[in-house]
Structure formats: C-alpha cells, structure tokens
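FOLDING PROBLEM:
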Amino acid sequence: MIRQGDVLFIPTTDAIPEYLTERGKNEKGIVMEGEATGHHHRIANLEAAEVFRSGWAGGESFVRVSDQGVSIVHEEHAPVQLPAGNYRVKIAREYDYLANAARFSRD
C-alpha cells in the first residue's frame, strides 16, 4: 500500500470494473480531489497512467499505471511513485476515540 496524505493506493490484481469511466486525460489526471483545501492528487505524466472513476462523489476509483511507472503529485505532499500495475484508490480512515467513531480523513 502506498499513502499520500489521506489517499491510499492499494495494489490489486483485480480487473478494473467495466462500469467505471476513464477520466485521466479529460480531467488533467486528477485521481482524488481535496475536500478541505481544493488541492488534488493527480498523475504527473498523462501518458503513463489512466484514471478510472465512478460518476458520483465517494464512488470507486482505480489507477492503471503503464510499464514506466508514474509519479502522483499534490500541492501539500511529497510526490509518490507508483510502479506498473492496477491500484484501487481509497480515502484513509481515522478513529476518533472521544467520539468513539471512525471517519474519513480530510485533505
């Protein structure tokens, strides 16, 4: 698993679901948008990876990385490198012990 801020890139051997839409080139390679800051996690080289997302907020996201690998960049975090392969993209969760509840992290 590779983490960049609140976003997790989880390597998977699963096929990317056919109902997801390729969004990499149309949306400038944005993988996940920041909820609090407006910053976003995006692929640095649009030729090296494809982003697949559902059409609704909170839906599934995948990244397919070519043989050359790709860098994921964000305004507030160091770049991370993803080797070739498929990745399921998730938002990290944190546990609030005072509220006794889990919640999604916010970037």
